[in-house]
Write a structure and sequence with these properties.
heterodimer; A: about 525 residues; five-stranded antiparallel sheet; 5 strands; B: about 475 residues; alpha+beta; 19 helices; about 50% helix; disordered C terminus
Chain lengths: ~525, ~475
């Protein structure tokens, strides 16, 4: 049983018999039935003093008091045990608000340092006041009121008006604590004093932070949308206002502001909020990329990652430098997650960075970078040469796969060039086969002469039937699937050399198999 | 009593009336008597949750559990009859203690029979008291009829009202000064607002009377307090909860915080403001917003305290000032402040006007602008609350007498108040000679008695009506 429950138990026993407990408050003691039951030597942080300070002179606990009421009462005492210099409330205020059913109290007024005074005594006159009033001249035409008397029937409140008033009260009761923001925006748009403008912006910062903490994206977006509108409205005439709003966006892009995203949002299912979240994040400055990158790094949510990737790309398109700086981070997982960002960016620096990452020590990063470069169509020929000969089989396989995804003249020319190299090892037959397969998938009529030469030259030499080049050429022709390649294959099928015919047969099988 | 709407109080009065009348006619075992006593028990037990059920009469009004009962039209005749009933028996009230929980049907019926019978005796209250002593199972206490001299409760209430008013003026000054230079807490303001709400609940006529204080040296501050008082009264009249009333009161106190920064030359200019001066004046809601942002207040309170003052010069169609781009609809607090702010200003002497409006003239002017400058439904509520000749008005009767409007006991007839007749005292000042209820018939003629002819601005008499509400004893105690 905890302390509160124990207290309640004692209360219940006493109250059942006596009906109530009344305690009197002095600044250094609490009394019950005239006797001190709690005294303190020092006022500081003491319960009697806190109660006395706020004007509470007695408290009565009545039979029936519940645990909830007692708990709330204790919470009030704790909250207001020490007051700041300019407090927003105190014990007496909280007790009044709460309106406990089983706790009564009495308070006295707070002492006031300065006292307003006004003389309400009447002015004595030398003559009979009322007679003088009757004798006074009538009101001039100018002074007479033209408004007619109020007809009581006309001011009867109709049922509809009653309903209107009830509706107004309901709306007022349900008003969000942020409802006043419209007044702030209206103040901001016409504000000509820089100091006042800053004060209002400070409040908006606070509210924005609050909205994010509450996961109220609508509230946060309202602030940013309206600020944006204000900035556009004032862009022509008040440069300091634009600058201050710009600083506002800079402020909210800082880690201390965006940390809430890490704390509150990173574990949340954001499937219902994706569009709003995206809109909110795109208001941020590119400087936010560092923080967003960290969140991207840590979040387990796939949805969040996709969202952040898009957003970081958008921000980096405005200013690449923060992303560039972030990409120097040695953390491989972070780099890995940032590579998709580079895929979507036009900036030339992206291609350079990806080229660097292609040579990264991490295989995952290399693979991602390669995919990204292919996606951008930015893989340089010299890189391609190098990658095709990469010592890692998975890299080579990836490259071939990427090459084979679409027809491409540059890659085609490269492959032909590569295959025509005299120093190409003829013993690595699977590699050569893969090259020809890739050529078939990405090639065009350009490579037909090469393939013809490769297929038909020296056909009668013994052992030449099993040449990986000749086999590869057949495979490539199959994969090309053009009229020219088909004709060439037909011709090869009718070849006088059995070696050639055998190659075509085998190539057909491979093609069916793949 | 249920502080939200006082319905239980009205139900109690109705149930008591019905019980009294059925017991007069029928025997105890009559079905109607049984139903009436059950109804009465139901209401009593509901009210006992909040403490002793006191039914008291003070200044011609019923007070239930310390709160003045607001009369609905449908029970006005019941009220009048019960007032007479109690008066004949020289009773000031009844108490049903909450410590006693067994108000059985038989005991209640017996009590009401004794109550009915007591009228036949010379000293009905004493006789009744004796009979109750002989019947100790009937746990009801009776109070003698109260004399018109103020009770301790009444004196305490008036003192609290006076102190609250004066402290409120000091507090606004203090907050305005602090908000100009740094952060200001709202602790004092909230305590005062809560006092205002309590006072309005107990005796709204007293508050309306005090809201007539005019001090042209400290106009902005007294005006703000008056607006807070009037707004709280109107809020209670339309049924706002106590929490909202507190917030409304704080709103009222700070609604013109921005004016503290406006030049006095502009505020007190006797002629029309030029364009520059008018622009300066129109800034005050915006200045107010900035100062209110410096208040250290809970979030919910801060929201309301900013919105109402910002909107209080806006019309229902959003014309007025300041210009709005984002606000699409005025809040309830904004509409309430608009009404009471204009009323308070119209009834004050201003340098730019030949004379102040009397309270009734102010209402007439405002009514002519209903729907344009004021929300019609709320304005109607305001006029109903104030009366055609508002509490605190000085009026001339067709008898030639001068009076001070004290109260409207019949809320269905807002042109016939209770009036305190004023006569010259020996020092050529004014004193109250008598109190009359203009709703009372002149029984000889069968026609209503005296009628109000016109309102008079109190400045013509050199008085502050509020002094009659605060009371002479409290005034002389507080040296000016």
């Amino acid at each position: 049983m905890n302390t509160l429950e124990q207290l309640l138990k004692h209360f219940d026993i006493y109250l059942y018999e006596h009906g109530e407990i009344t305690i009197d408050i002095e600044k250094d003691a609490i009394f019950f039935q005239g006797r001190p039951i709690h005294t303190v030597e020092s006022e500081e942080n003491s319960l009697p003093f806190a109660l006395f300070r706020d004007g509470v002179r007695w408290l009565k606990f009545i039979d029936g008091i519940t645990k909830d009421e007692l708990q709330e009462f204790m919470d009030i005492l704790i909250k207001y045990s020490v007051l700041s210099d300019e407090p927003e409330g105190d014990i007496a205020i909280a007790l009044w608000e709460r309106k406990f059913t089983y706790i009564e109290y009495e308070t006295v007024d707070m002492p006031f340092d300065t006292e307003y005074k006004i003389d309400l005594e009447q002015t004595q006159t030398d003559e009979d006041t009322i007679s003088a009033l009757h004798r006074e001249s009538k009101l001039s035409e100018e002074e007479k009121l033209q408004d007619p008397a109020i007809d009581q029937a006309s001011i009867e409140i109709s049922a509809q008006e009653q309903a209107q008033i009830k509706e107004m009260i309901l709306i007022e009761k349900r008003m969000e604590p942020t409802a006043y923001l419209d007044a702030l925006f209206d103040s901001l748009i016409v504000q000509v004093e820089k100091d006042n403008f800053e004060v209002i912006l400070d409040m908006l910062k606070e509210e924005l932070q609050g909205s994010l903490n509450r996961k109220d994206l609508d509230g946060a977006l309202k602030i940013l949308n309206n600020l944006n509108y204000i900035m556009e409205e004032r862009v022509d005439n008040v440069s300091w206002a634009v600058s201050l709003i710009d600083n506002f966006y800079l402020y909210i892009s800082r880690p201390e502001c965006l940390d809430v995203l890490t704390n509150v949002w990173s574990q949340t299912d954001i499937s219902n909020h994706t569009a709003k979240m995206q809109k909110f994040l795109t208001y941020l400055k590119p400087e936010a990329i560092h923080t967003l990158g960290e969140i991207l790094h840590k979040t387990p949510s796939l949805q969040m990652r996709r969202l952040l990737t898009d957003v970081i790309a958008t921000l980096a398109a405005r200013d690449f430098s923060p992303l560039q700086s972030l990409l120097t981070n040695p953390d491989e997982e972070l780099i890995y997650r940032l590579i998709p960002v580079l895929t979507g960016l036009e900036d030339q620096r992206c291609a350079n960075i990806l080229s660097k990452f292609i040579r990264h020590k991490s295989l995952r990063i290399r693979q991602e970078a390669i995919k990204a470069q292919f996606h951008k169509g930015a893989l340089r020929v010299k890189d391609l040469f190098r990658l095709i000969d990469d010592k890692d089989a998975s890299i080579r396989a990836l490259v071939f796969k990427q090459i084979g995804l679409s027809r491409d003249n540059i890659t085609e020319k490269f492959l032909v060039e590569y295959l025509e190299r005299p120093n190409l090892s003829k013993t690595d037959s699977s590699h050569i086969t893969e090259c020809f397969k890739a050529l078939g998938k990405c090639g065009s009529s350009f490579c037909i002469p090469f393939l013809r030469r490769t297929l038909f030259s020296k056909g009668w030499l013994p052992g030449s039937a099993h040449s990986p080049f000749r086999n590869g050429a057949a495979i490539a022709l199959n994969k090309l699937d053009t009229n020219e390649s088909t004709e060439l294959l037909k011709k090869a099928r009718r070849s006088l050399y059995p070696g050639v015919r055998g190659i075509i047969k085998r190539a057909n099988k491979d093609n069916v198999g793949s | 009593m249920d502080k939200e709407n006082g319905l239980s109080g009205c139900e109690l009065i109705k149930a008591l009336y019905q019980l009294i009348n059925t017991v007069k006619i029928h025997q105890n075992n009559n079905q109607l008597v049984k139903e009436c006593v059950e109804q009465y028990r139901t209401v009593i037990y509901e009210l006992l949750q909040y403490g002793d059920v006191d039914i008291q009469i003070w200044r011609g009004r019923f007070h239930i559990q310390g709160n003045r009962l607001r009369y609905r039209k449908d029970i006005f005749h019941i009220i009048n009859e019960l007032l007479d009933y109690f008066s004949v028996r020289e009773l000031g009230g009844l108490r049903f203690p909450c410590t006693y929980q067994d108000y059985s049907s038989d005991n209640l019926i017996t009590f009401v029979r004794l109550l009915n019978e007591s009228a036949h005796y010379y000293n009905p209250a004493d006789w009744l008291r004796n009979e109750l002593e002989k019947n100790p199972q009937i746990q009801v206490e009776i109070f003698n009829k109260l004399k018109e001299n103020p009770s301790d409760t009444d004196i305490r209430r008036r003192k609290m009202a006076k102190d609250t008013y004066f402290h409120a003026v000091s507090t606004i000054k203090d907050v305005a000064d602090k908000a100009s230079h740094g952060v200001a807490g709202v602790r004092r303001s909230r305590r005062l607002a809560q006092n205002i709400v309590d006072l309005v609940e107990e005796d709204s006529s007293l508050i309306l009377g005090i809201s007539t204080i005019k001090d042209y040296d400290d106009y902005t501050y007294t005006h703000s307090v008056n607006v807070a008082l009037l707004a709280t009264c109107l809020g209670r009249h339309i049924g706002l909860s106590e929490i909202l009333l507190e917030q409304l009161a704080v709103c009222g106190l700070f609604h013109d915080l921005g004016k503290v920064g406006v030049s006095k030359d502009i505020l007190h200019k006797p002629s029309k403001l030029d364009n520059t001066e008018w622009e300066e004046m129109q800034k005050h809601p915006l200045i107010g917003v900035r100062k209110i942002l410096k208040l250290k207040a809970p979030a919910a309170l801060r929201s309301r305290v900013i919105l109402g003052p910002f909107e209080h010069h806006l019309n229902p169609d959003l014309s007025g000032y300041p210009k709005t781009h984002f606000i699409k609809k005025i809040s309830l607090f904004g509409k309430i402040l608009r009404i009471v702010d204009v009323y308070e200003a119209l009834t004050s002497e201003r340098d730019y006007r030949p004379r102040a409006f009397t309270p009734d003239e102010a209402l007439r002017r405002m009514w002519s602008e209903a729907g344009i400058n004021f929300d019609t439904a709320l304005l109607k509520s305001f006029i109903h609350m104030m009366g055609i000749y508002p509490v605190g008005s000085i009026v001339e009767l067709d008898s030639g007498e001068i009076g001070l409007v004290l109260d409207y006991p019949d809320e269905s007839d807002i042109a016939r108040p209770v009036v305190a007749l004023l006569i010259n005292d020996e020092k050529n000042g004014l004193a109250i000679s008598d109190t009359i209820n203009l709703t009372n018939q002149d029984t000889d003629q069968g026609t209503p008695g005296r009628n109000i002819v016109r309102g008079i601005h109190f400045s013509k008499l050199g008085i502050q009506p509020s002094r009659f509400f605060i009371g002479q004893a409290l005034l002389t105690k507080d040296t000016a």
